[in-house]
Amino acid sequence: MANTKELNVEERLRALYDLQLIDTRIDEIRNVRGELPLEVEDLEDEVAGLTARQEKLKKDLDNIEEQIKVKKNAIEDHQAAIKKYTKQQDSVRNNREFNSLTKEVEFQELEIQLAEKQIRELKATMEHKKEAIAGAKEKLDAKMSHLKHKKAELSDIMAETQKEEAFLAEKSQEFAALIDERLLKAYNRIRSSVRNGLAVVSIERGASAGSFFTIPPQTQVEIAGRKKIITDEHSGRILIDAALAQEEREKMEKLFALI
């Protein structure tokens, strides 16, 4: 391909419009995918969030079970202490020792009651956690099923368009390399500022494509002369004549047919 410094204005306009046609074709392919990639990304985030929540709930459940185990062990210790103090009561020498042991037994019994109450509360919390885990699992399963469906849908579309998009992306780079840096920056700036991504448009019925503003006859003559880069004063788009546009469209259609 020719060096950018060797291109005259007409060649630069042709390269610009070729680049526009290629980039427009890429835009059309990506529009077919629409919001699907974002939907997949959002679903992946939701699945990750629900998975993390489920893991936390399971850890909470494990902690509760461990607390119940500790409380049950404590009850066994208190029961052992009661048995010990009760046995000691059989060999006391006076009422003071007996009463002291009785208080110890009562204290251990209170500790058992407290532990049993805490176990009941922990078991109630456990049931609540189990319900939350079941609900989280149901929601997670639904989201994962939806994600699987959307991924398959995206994969099918990607399989159909990936080869063409890769080919066009390579051609876009090739044609962009023909254009001098300043003009290419202007092209990209215009493309990013307009909704349909059209930075280079042809003259149709005396106005730039997609515009209702008539272009003065003298300006139309200058555009057809292909001696300088002319932009639409209303939209800022780069303008080319209809004949050049038709020639380049036919050329690009042949290129696209190779895909």
Task: Please summarize what this structure is.
By secondary structure, the protein is mainly alpha-helical. It has helices spanning 9-33, 36-89, 95-176, 181-193, 217-225, 242-257; strands at 200-204, 207-208, 230-231, 238-240. A 4-stranded mixed sheet has the order 2-1-4-3.
| Regions with little confidence, pLDDT below 50 for 5+ residues | none
Total beta-strand segments = 4
Largest β sheet strand count, sense and barrel closure: 4 strands, mixed
- The amount of helix comes to over 70%
The CA-CA distance between the termini, in Å, is: 20 Å
- Overall mean pLDDT stands at 91
Strand percentage: under 5%
Tally of separate helices = 6
Strand order of the largest sheet: 2-1-4-3
Order of helices and strands: HHHHEEHEEH
Rg from Cα: 39 Å
Which descriptor suits the 3D outline?
Answer: rod-shaped
- Class from secondary-structure proportions: mainly alpha
Which quaternary structure do these chains form? single chain
What does this structure look like?
This protein is mostly helical and 259 residues long. The chain contains 6 helices and 4 strands. A 4-stranded mixed sheet has the order 2-1-4-3. A hairpin with a 2-residue loop joins strand 1 and strand 2. The longest helix has 82 residues. The two termini are 20 Å apart.
Give the helix/strand layout.
Elements: H1 9-33, H2 36-89, H3 95-176, H4 181-193, E1 200-204, E2 207-208, H5 217-225, E3 230-231, E4 238-240, H6 242-257
Parallel strand pairs: 1-4
Antiparallel strand pairs: 1-2, 3-4
